[in-house]
Amino acid sequence: MANFKLDIDADGIALVTWDMPDRSMNVITMGVIEELSTIVEKVAADAAIKGAVITSGKEAFCGGADLTMLERMATVFAQMVKTQGEAAAAEFVYDESRKLSQLYRRLETSGKPWVCALNGTAMGGGFELALACHHRIATDNPKTRLGLPEIKIGLFPGAGGTQRVARMMAPADALQFLLKGDQLKVDRAKAMKLIDNVVPAADLVKAGKDWIKAGGKPQAPWDVQGFKLPGGLVYSKAGMMTFPAANAIYRRETYDNYPAARAILQVVYEGLQVPMDVALRVESRWFAKILRSKEAAAMIRTLFVSMQELNKGARRPAAEPPSSLKKIGVVGAGFMGAGIAQVSAAAGLSVVLVDRDQETADKGKAALHKSLSDRVLKGRMKGAERDALLEKITPSADYGALKDCDLIVEAVFEDRKVKADVIKKIEAVISDTAIFASNTSTLPITSLAAEFKDPARFIGIHFFSPVAVMMLTEIILGKETGDRALAVALDFVRAIRKTPIVVNDTRGFYANRCVLNYIQEGHLMLLEGVPAAMIENTARMAGMPVGPLSLNDETALDLGLKIVRAAEADLGASAINPQQKQLLETMVEKLGRLGRKNGKGFYDYAPGQPKRLWPGLSDLLPKKLTREEVEALDVEELKQRFLVVQAVEAARTFEEKVVTDVREADVGSILGFGFAPFSGGTLSYIDMMGTKKFVDLCRKFEQKFGARFAPPKLLLDLAEHGETFYQRFAPVKKKEAA
């Protein structure tokens, strides 16, 4: 066996150690399933073996299934549909995808007690293995996380997880756990009765063996006659208070965009009404169905496979040696700068936080202390962790403190003159090997690099706000940016545990170009007379996390006006929509409504109360629809406008070679601006619809609403040849990134 080691002690207890070669973490593959099946059968058949303890030889127990295995299954399914028909292909997926569920059920009913000794993190199918064991023990490791996060990539637990969890706790709690995909600390998992005991690491295996020697039963509670469901029967008062409410919450939160979430409700509801073996077949049938869905395929590809490849350095120049960053400088101690300092210090880097005077620099660190202290008060962080993080940050007004920094990130006010002045001050003190990065969201990197003596060492690193929460960074290449600057930037982003996308220099880069179109579409709908509430609700129905008016309030209306005016000044009047400009001028300059930051924008923000759409908004609009006209509005068309206007802009950036990798376009769109995750991202959305159908929709919207929907030549060519983005531009997988 390549993946497991089997040792049987003098008491007849088997110790199964899972330790995959050439892997930093154990994952479930077909080879793992086959080997574990052999072990289960040996334990079951050998009378000399009294029971088994399974643990890991690595720091973590298991990271879940190798999802590339599921991707290959989907590929085989597509091929079989063409050669053998859909029925045979569906049967293949069902048979293959339930092998893990059958293995775990065989372990559970083998007649020998099994203990799962969780020495570290267990996710997905790895945690489902633990749930199938008769006893679960975890070490008291604060880093350990346990969970079933499959919902986050368009799937649900398909190896018995939905059925076992729903028999361990009340259905309402089970549904919440399954639908949120939370990762639990061990104490929380024990309180939820998902694990039985927590012990010191040195006692883990011994505790498992002691449980078997003490007469541990080789039978799950649901296999014992007379077992009663923790939450009572589905068709009971408690059940009827759970499932209708759960369905309502599901629809409110997802607008029925996520088939896997709907399937969780279905399999729990159906599974609790039948015996366990039947329930597992119900789960397997739904799992096979969801696995074949377009949403699951797109989400697995983007949010697991592509994201993993980007995080491992798919875009890093292979010839550049690894950089060993130890100390970085952050210039600008405002909200963004302090956030960059925070994530850098959390990664173990020493940080010099520089601003125009000592008071301002100290103020930036003090604000960080306050926000971290709030986390401590809420139990999300320990005081010692806060203090250790803050100790790594040194506020200063002296640019000379940057002299021995490996990387400097400039995060000052978004003004070309201010940035040029700061660049000169930094340039005068840093070493000739230090990399200079500008955190700009609007100014072209190439023009900023012209202020720097060595443009090859100048690069853009665009963080999204709030820095500590947002997982994406855009790395922007100027025309003269060198490979070493790119490699160092990617190494830095990896160190602070963000996901990078690499884009070429242009106004707005990638993410802002797309999301500004989204905000503009909300403005234009408003000017068409569409009610503000309808705009916000249809945007969320389309899959966006917040409506465009709410998003504009968060980013600030005065910033939006500044961007529109800058585009007009640089590119001419044809580059902007005059109606949008007039709306923003009225809101900002005539009414002083700047957004959330001053408590009034498209919404009103009263202290201690939920935000509410500003009642005076309708009085500003040049057009007002009658009730009959509002009722006649096509909700589906409004939803499509929001997604199409972003996706067509993404296609333009790809044609212009701003984005050069389909993975980055999709990952960046979801992590950067929340583009409908169920679609897999902007380009996957086009592929899912089909390029020809998408182009036809663009043409329809172009004729009805304007040139912003005009499809670029690349899209027309793809449609003409019946190709998708992922067919023509499939990324080459690099061995170095594995």
What does it look like?
The chain has 738 residues and is α/β, with parallel strands linked by helices. The chain folds into three domains: 4-292, 2-enoyl-CoA Hydratase, Chain A, domain 1; 327-506, Rossmann fold (3-Layer(aba) Sandwich), CATH 3.40.50; 512-657 and 661-728, N-(1-d-carboxylethyl)-l-norvaline Dehydrogenase, domain 2, CATH 1.10.1040.50. It has 32 helices and 19 strands. The chain is globular.
CATH topology of the largest domain: 2-enoyl-CoA Hydratase, Chain A, domain 1
Radius of gyration: 28 Å
Identify the overall geometry: globular
Number of domains: 3
- Cross-sheet strand order for the largest sheet: 12-11-10-13-14-15-16-17
What is the count of DSSP helices, taking H or I runs of 4+ residues? 32
Number of β-strand runs: 19
Helix content: 40-55%
What is the SS-derived class?
alpha/beta
CATH superfamily of the largest domain: 2-enoyl-CoA Hydratase, Chain A, domain 1
Low-confidence stretches: none
Amount of beta strand: 5-15%
In CATH, the architecture of the largest domain is Alpha-Beta Complex
Query: End-to-end span in angstroms?
Result: 23 Å
SSE layout and pairing:
Elements: E1 4-8, E2 13-18, H1 30-45, E3 51-56, H2 67-84, H3 86-97, H4 99-108, E4 114-118, E5 122-123, H5 125-132, E6 135-139, E7 146-147, H6 161-168, H7 171-180, E8 183-184, H8 186-191, E9 197-199, H9 204-213, H10 237-254, H11 259-271, H12 276-291, H13 294-311, E10 327-331, H14 335-346, E11 350-354, H15 358-377, H16 383-391, E12 393-396, E13 407-410, H17 416-427, E14 435-438, H18 445-449, E15 458-463, E16 472-477, H19 483-495, E17 499-504, H20 511-527, H21 532-542, H22 548-555, H23 557-571, H24 578-590, E18 603-604, E19 612-613, H25 617-620, H26 627-631, H27 635-655, H28 662-673, H29 682-689, H30 691-705, H31 713-720, H32 725-728
Parallel strand pairs: 2-3, 3-4, 4-6, 5-7, 6-9, 10-11, 10-13, 11-12, 13-14, 14-15, 16-17
Antiparallel strand pairs: 1-2, 7-8, 15-16, 18-19
